[in-house]
Amino acid sequence: MSASLTQKLTLEKFLQFPHVEESPAWEYVDGVALQKPMPKARHSILQKRLLAEIDSHSQAYTALPELRCTFGGRSVVPDVAVVAWNRIQVNEAGEPEDNFLEPPDWSIEILSPDQSANRVIDNLLHCIKYGCQLGWMIDPDDRSVLVFAPRQEPSVCRGASPLPTLSEMTLEVTADSVFFMVTDQ
Which positions ≥6 away from 170 have C-beta within 8 Å? Predict the structure, then answer.
């Protein structure tokens, strides 16, 4: 079960809390700080394999684990944030800025048993509203992927259903192949 700080906070105050970068990640939604559940083995393996698959199929994008994305009055931490390299701000030394203040191009969440599906969906809808091109909510228990895209109804993909990816990617994936990543060695 995830923890929360129920007192109303401002986003600025939330980002100053010393515990905000602890693991598991804390998110800020509607004035409340919420801690995501601690990932378990299946979740972590799926996350690791998704990162590798996405990175191996694109030069224009990078897949990042647990990247804090602060925008539109929220601070969310997708399990996998896919961001175009040219959108990552760099400092004077040419190093990436620590704070990412935009939605990712593609937000992927892996639903944990102790996690509220509605909270995850709410975060994905928020990402889409503010410019994210694609959102996936992966449900390992149901072996399905709920897909979000701008100006489209959400769709559920199972089995051999092809999943959308970003247009500049060569990645071709189905719902089955996502779950094969957990058992493939």
Answer: 57, 58
